[in-house]
Backbone:
């Protein structure tokens, strides 16, 4: 076995364009994301309202809880809803999100099959309001919205949860994408840091290439044992257009766009992220830097397009996952 050569490793990483968090922050987040626009993506309620105004589809909003005394009232507002999702407006990484799939009397059945009593439900909402799950731990408000019914194509590659597609958009150009698949380890949530699988998607075709689970490269879902490679993501061009249009929506140059595919409603915007993670590079087996540089070259030449369709066409022509 040869000795580890840090210089050779660094050279290989540069060759594939792998970007680290320091470079992401310095060259892209700080440079292209003005702080005054952060509330547009850090508050899910603001994001939802702006998306609707821009004509982008979002899950229907059932109720908003802002004060403790409103918690008890919310049961009446959702009494006719068999399923729904509860989330903190300023939450991060999926923390605190509660997915209710059905009811039994006064109890709520979670997506993992366990039941919550009314008191347990109220306590969870109270924790949300207190900021337990929010960015910076500041007091928060709670959104209760439509529970997405995922497209049947994902039936065998998702464990008790809804997959979502993350698209990295740079100056309105979709540069990289992956689908996040819930697992038993992630408790049915599509969040990589909780144990979901990230599967890279080829930008030109919308076909999945390979997956990463924690730090392991995988080709099958660990719970269902079905392949996660070679899946055709439905309505892919629509998803890319949403990723492109997010630039005009939030005016952040470097942003993660999270979209779900509902079996009846099609693509729905879940949220936007001003500081999207970098595991998407591992899921794709490609670094993001070379793609970002191509868009920067357009910027340098004054050739950035104002037409989302043209930006999608450029991405499909220049950003294949090899």
Residues:
């Amino acid at each position: 076995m040869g000795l580890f050569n840090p210089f050779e490793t660094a050279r290989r990483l540069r060759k594939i364009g792998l970007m680290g968090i320091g470079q992401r922050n310095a060259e892209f987040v700080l440079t292209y994301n003005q702080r005054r626009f952060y509330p547009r993506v850090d508050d899910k309620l603001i994001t939802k309202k702006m998306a609707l105004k821009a004509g982008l589809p979002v899950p229907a909003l059932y109720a908003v809880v802002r004060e403790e005394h409103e918690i008890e009232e919310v049961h009446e507002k959702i009494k006719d809803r068999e399923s729904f999702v509860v989330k903190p407006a300023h939450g991060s990484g999926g923390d605190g999100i509660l997915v209710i799939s059905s009811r039994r009397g006064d109890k709520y059945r979670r997506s993992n099959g366990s039941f919550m009593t009314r008191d347990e439900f109220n306590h969870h909402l109270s924790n949300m309001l207190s900021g337990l799950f929010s960015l910076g731990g500041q007091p928060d408000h709670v959104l209760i919205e439509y529970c997405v019914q995922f497209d049947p194509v994902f039936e065998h590659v998702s464990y008790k949860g809804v997959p979502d597609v993350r698209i990295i958009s740079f100056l309105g150009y979709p540069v990289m994408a992956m689908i996040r698949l819930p697992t038993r380890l992630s408790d049915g949530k599509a969040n990589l840091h909780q144990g979901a699988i990230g599967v890279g998607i080829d930008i030109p075709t919308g076909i999945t290439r390979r997956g990463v689970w924690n730090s392991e490269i995988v080709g099958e879902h660990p719970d269902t044992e079905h392949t996660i490679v070679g899946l055709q993501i439905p309505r892919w061009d629509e998803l890319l257009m949403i990723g492109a249009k997010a630039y005009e929506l939030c005016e952040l140059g470097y942003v993660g766009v999270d979209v779900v595919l509902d079996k009846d409603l099609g693509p729905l915007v879940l949220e936007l992220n001003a500081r999207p993670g970098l595991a998407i590079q591992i899921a794709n087996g490609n670094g993001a830097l070379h793609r970002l540089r191509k868009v920067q070259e357009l910027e340098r030449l004054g050739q950035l397009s104002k037409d989302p369709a043209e930006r999608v066409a450029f991405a499909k022509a220049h950003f294949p996952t090899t």
Observations:
- The two ends are 29 Å apart (CA to CA).
- The domain at 19-56+151-318 is CATH 3.30.470.20 (D-amino Acid Aminotransferase; Chain A, domain 1).
- The chain has two domains: 19-56+151-318, 61-145.
